[in-house]
TrEMBL record:
Transmembrane domains' residue ranges: 116-136
Cited PROSITE patterns: HTH_CROC1
Organism: Vibrio metschnikovii
Keyword Membrane listed: yes
Protein name according to UniProt: DUF4115 domain-containing protein
Residues covered by region (Disordered): 147-168
Pfam families: HTH_25, RodZ_C
Domain HTH cro/C1-type: 23-52
Length: 304
């Protein structure tokens, strides 16, 4: 509302006093100051001064202005209805048009807010769906990995039993070896009785006698070169498999708690431990760190 419109309204309604004038006259009649009224209403003195000067903020909603006027009128003993009526006569213009305009703006704003909320909900649902799918796939992958590791551990713990028996079987003499060794005395007796013609038959038999070689052990002499010496000490039962670069098996099978072994072979040496938490390993007199292997998991590594 501009000054020209206010002057036009005042000219058209000369018999009705403005609301601020009514309130100011009543306050002065009661001998009250603007500060006293402001303290009673818990308002700033500037607001009381603007009301008495009939300076109403056009940006302020009319409902708030009416509330200030009613409170001021009650504080000084004036009729609130009379003061509000004076305000509406002088300052409220075309209320219906203003109401329709505000309703139209509110409708447009509501439509805009509805579209924003719809887009927001769609984005949230997409994020939730993608997160759920990622979690499900990750969970399935972990389950498959755990199952395969358990199956591998069971297979490795089963196979060593048959593998560990192989060296023992290799050390036992075969039936043919026993037969040959038992036949040797008989052949020697036959040499004395038979003619030299039978000597040619005896010689192949004697040549078939297996040569006895000393059994190899896992322990290596202490005074040997320690550059590729692999030592293991077991604090718990553990299945192991150790192979060197040539594919030769240096040690395999279940080792008992309290047992210690030393091995040598061509590097790099591949090591598999069924229960790494129960084994202490040193290579070339240097300890091997096994803390990174989780308890219950098979440890696979290569030295050096």
């Amino acid at each position: 509302m501009n000054t020209q419109q206010e002057e036009t309204i005042v000219d058209e309604t000369p018999n009705v006093q403005q609301p601020g004038t009514l309130l100011k006259q009543k306050r002065e009649a009661l001998g009250l100051s603007q500060k006293q009224v402001a303290d009673r209403l818990r308002l700033r003195v500037a607001i009381i001064r603007n009301i008495e000067d009939n300076q109403f903020d056009s940006d302020l909603v009319a409902t708030f202005t009416r509330g200030y006027l009613r409170s001021y009128a009650k504080a000084v003993g004036l009729s609130a209805a009379e003061v509000v009526e004076a305000y509406e006569v002088h300052y409220v213009i075309e209320p219906q048009e203003q109401k329709m305009q505000s309703f139209s703006k509110k409708t447009k704003r509501d439509q805009h807010d509805s579209r924003i909320m719809l887009i927001t909900w769609v984005i949230v649902l997409v994020i939730i769906g993608m997160s759920s799918l990622w979690w499900w796939q990750n969970n399935q992958h972990n389950n498959l990995t755990s199952s395969s590791e358990r199956s591998s551990l069971i297979t490795e713990q089963t196979n060593p039993q048959s593998t560990s028996a192989d060296p023992i079987l290799d050390q036992l003499p075969t039936v043919s070896d026993l037969t040959v060794s038992n036949e040797v005395p008989a052949v020697e007796q036959a040499e004395e009785e038979e003619s030299p013609v039978n000597d040619s038959r005896v010689e192949p038999i004697l040549e078939a006698e297996p040569s006895i070689t000393p059994a190899t052990t896992e322990n290596t002499p202490v005074n040997a070169d320690e550059s590729n010496l692999l030592s293991m000490t077991f604090s718990a039962d553990c299945w192991i498999q150790v192979k060197d670069a040539t594919g030769k098996t240096l040690s395999t099978g279940v080792k008992k708690a309290g047992q210690s072994i030393n091995m040598r072979g061509e590097t790099p040496i591949s090591v598999i431990l069924g229960a790494p938490e129960g084994v202490s390993v040193t290579f070339a007199s240097e300890p091997v760190d096994l803390s990174g292997y989780t308890s219950g998991r098979v440890a696979r590594f290569t030295l050096p």
